[in-house]
Amino acid sequence: MEWGFVHKAWEKWTSINVGSSTGEPLKSALLINYDPNAPSRLLSIIAEQEGINATPTEVSQFVDFVRRNKLQSENFTIGQNQYVVTSIHENCFCARSVTASEPAGEGAIIMHTSAFLFVALYDGSIGAASRAMVAVDQFAWQLGRRNL
């Protein structure tokens, strides 16, 4: 694992894509070390996080949700929001908060790379979701270049 590369790429990417001002497409992001083929007794580790203060318990419950692979029949929680999956794609799935405090709503994009689960949270609807997906794709592409 090239932790130095991952950390440097994360820092650079979050500096322009994650924040509370209107210019950033994401309000928070979380990178979880994840290997679906590893024994379930091995805990997934929070590799990086920005704009969120996820706990190991939260991450463990979220990873269990992903491992169960019942994306369309169960909800999941990240932070104070509960999400329902709205679309499933080859390497990612998207969700909307059912407990959103924002009038336009809140969404999540979860992407699986070969070594990580990447969680991106955003405020807003269709336009915000499009900007968030572009940001997620950019970071996933960087990891993919190193087969991470």
From TrEMBL:
SUPFAM superfamilies: Profilin (actin-binding protein) (SSF55770). InterPro entries: PFN, PFN_sf. Pfam families: Profilin (PF00235). GO terms for molecular function: actin binding. PANTHER family: OS05G0241400 PROTEIN (PTHR36780), PROFILIN (PTHR36780:SF1). This is Profilin. The lineage of its organism: Eukaryota, Viridiplantae, Streptophyta, Embryophyta, Tracheophyta.
